[in-house]
Structure formats: C-alpha cells, structure tokens
Amino acid sequence: MGILGMTPRFKLIFFVPTSHLEQCKAAIFAAGAGRYPGPGNYTECCWTSIGIGQFRPGQGANPHTGHVGLLSKVEEVRVETLVVGEDVVKSAVEALKMAHPFEEPSYEVFKMENY
C-alpha cells in the first residue's frame, strides 16, 4: 500500500475572484496543498473553472466587493485540489483565509475514501 493508501486525503474546494486567484493558489500550495506523492513528485496541481458568484452583504458586513444591502455578482474561479494529511489541509485552509480578499471565503473540505 502506497502513501496515498495510508495517509488521509482531502479535497479542498474554494471560490475566489479572478483578481486574487494566483495569490490564493500560491498560499495553499506553500502550505502543502496540491501535491501528489509518488514517483512523479507532482506539485501545484489543481483544477479551475470560471463562473459567477452572487451575494448580498448584510448589515454589519465589510464587503471587499459590492455594498451592504445590494446584490452583487462577481466573476469567480472555483479551485479544486488534493490535500494529503489532516495537518496539511488545516494549514491550507488557514493560508487560504489569510490570502483571500473576502471576509468570509467560501470553501469546502471533503475527506476522500481510499479504494
């Protein structure tokens, strides 16, 4: 059984405005996300797609984009990457939060099964 079979794997998915895509990718990759262990030693691996994010900031919000009470639509990128190890995924999420321009970045973490 290889290292992927023994170490927990996670899928990190997040959404970021196109203006901050490279900054956020650099942050999560520096934290160890996007690495496929094995003979190929691949790093900085991810999948991206462009779409439109929508939100309405509520009272008390300090939006990076848009205005409180008004509906905003922003071109965003969905980024998906593999993260190997629970400590690494926690570090990658913290790095994402620091690099992301939104006060509440949208992200998801899924634990993956090994078959």
UniProtKB/TrEMBL annotation:
Gene3D superfamilies given in the database record: 3.30.70.120
InterPro entries: DUF34/NIF3_sf, N-reg_PII/ATP_PRibTrfase_C
Domain of life: Eukaryota
Organism, scientific name: Triangularia verruculosa
PANTHER family attached to this UniProt entry: NGG1P INTERACTING FACTOR NIF3 (PTHR41774:SF1), PTHR41774
Protein name per Swiss-Prot or TrEMBL: ATP phosphoribosyltransferase
Residue stretches in coiled coil: none
